[in-house]
Design a protein that fits this description.
With 396 residues, the protein is of the alpha/beta class. 38% of the residues lie in helices and 19% in strands. It has 14 helices and 14 strands. Bound molecules: adenosine-5'-diphosphate. Adenosine-5'-diphosphate (ADP) is lined by residues 209-211, 238, 281-284, 329-331, 334-335.
Length: 396
């Protein structure tokens, strides 16, 4: 089957066409500046990227351009629209309504709409993508895969905040967690890769990208994760603060004469390693800065790595032990420096780093020594493939 995987934002739309039997990506790309002017990036497997400026006033036109590119005589990956068997949509927030992926129906759309206030930047954009596909491909089945679903197995003690209970009852203020598709994919693959029984395992996944989160997975089920009501909680990230003393918000608001939106903007966009280093949110720049003797860049890497190690300690307690730790996403897959710093904190668990193996970039690898009590590995994430697999499983 050919599955079109869509990740739709307010002005952009990422897509991949995946053959579910071979799990090969047949073509992939991106529509940018939807509603502004419009640019299509298209790449058939094994070919160069193509760029096309093309008017896309709405997401419907963007999808139409994607289909035209996919079925193009010369560079198309398929001959006609009917070769797309299903569409898998990344949906960000499923609230407490969705603990797994679903076939998209009008009832599902209504339920996802109800979750919009929990993810006002993401869910409405995701639903626009669903509506656009429905218009262009009315008869093709569609599946929604939620970022929050994998974390719905967290127990109450992990998801409740120490706030008046009525906020949970009235407004569903609780911890939800994000990157669930990645945590699910990577934890499962870690067990497989290490020859462990997933249903009898204690795995910690560190998804370290621009957005970063950690999860504790017990016997294949998430029991805790570092992001909360929103993706702002937890680790120090590219530009997000992660955990802070909430009283800092009032303190900074008064000192800097900011309203709540101003403070939230600082916490989401001007903090994290970007704010700490005054240099960049990108670890390649921070590592270069550190090597040039930039003290703030070094601080940022230290703060980031220390927070990751603290969460691993906390989740080892939550799991009552740990069999394996997996690093994934941009920094997790490509950042030997951060991985080494984190592993150095974990000597008390019997973790021992293998420096040669830890030099890996983007490939699966065990990066702990053979006698390390806890196996540490790099497992590249693949959220699009995970969405394609879920889609096939549901429409079969
Ligand atoms: P997201 O999907 O959250 O935007 P990614 O998972 O793509 O993020 O990760 C992006 C980050 O990965 C970059 O900001 C950069 O910090 C880091 N990264 C990518 N490549 C490298 C590398 N070779 N060395 C160190 N860090 C890297």
């Amino acid at each position: 089957m050919n599955i079109l995987v869509i990740n739709c934002g307010s002005s952009s739309l990422k897509y991949q066409l995946i053959n579910s039997e071979s799990e090969d990506v047949l073509a992939k790309g991106l529509c940018e500046r939807i509603g502004i002017d419009g640019r299509l990036v298209y790449q058939k497997a094994g070919c160069d990227k193509e760029f096309k400026e093309a008017a896309m006033p709405t997401h419907k036109q963007a999808i139409e351009l994607v289909i035209t590119a996919l079925t193009n005589d010369k560079t198309g990956a398929i001959k006609e629209l009917s070769e797309i068997d299903a569409v898998g949509h990344r949906l960000v927030h499923g609230g407490e309504k969705f603990a797994s992926s679903v076939v998209i129906t009008p009832e599902v759309i209504a339920a996802v709409e109800e979750c919009c206030e929990l993810a006002p930047l993401h869910n409405p954009a995701n639903l626009i993508g669903v509506a656009a596909c429905k218009e262009v491909m009315p008869d093709v089945p569609m599946v929604g895969v939620f970022d929050t679903a994998f974390h719905q197995t967290m127990p109450k003690k992990a998801y409740l905040y120490g706030l008046p209970y009525e906020y949970y009852e009235k407004y569903k203020v609780r911890r939800y967690g994000f990157h669930g598709t990645s945590h699910s994919f990577v934890s499962k693959r870690t067990a497989e890769y290490l020859g462990m029984d997933y249903n009898n395992s204690k795995i910690i996944v560190a998804h370290l990208g621009n957005g970063a989160s950690i999860s504790a997975v017990l016997n294949g089920k998430c029991i805790d994760t570092s992001m909360g009501l929103t993706p702002l909680e937890g680790l120090v990230m590219g530009t997000r603060s992660g955990d802070i003393d909430p009283a800092i918000m009032e303190f900074i608001a008064k000192k800097e004469n900011l309203d709540i939106d101003g403070v939230m903007n600082v916490l989401n966009k001007k903090s994290g390693v970007q704010g700490l280093s005054r240099l960049s949110s990108d670890f390649r720049d921070l590592e270069a800065g550190m090597n040039d003797g930039n003290e703030l860049a070094e601080n940022a890497i230290e703060v980031f790595s220390y927070r990751v190690a603290k969460y691993i300690g906390a989740y080892t307690a939550a799991l009552n032990g740990v069999d394996a730790i997996a690093f994934t996403a941009g920094i997790g897959e490509n950042g030997p420096i951060v991985r080494k710093k984190v592993m150095e904190y974990l000597g008390y668990l019997g973790v021992a780093a293998d420096d040669e193996k830890n030099s890996v970039h983007g490939d699966e690898a065990v990066i702990s020594t053979p006698d390390s009590k806890v196996k540490v590995c790099v497992i590249p994430t693949n959220e699009e493939l995970a969405i394609a697999r879920e889609t096939v499983a549901l429409i079969r």
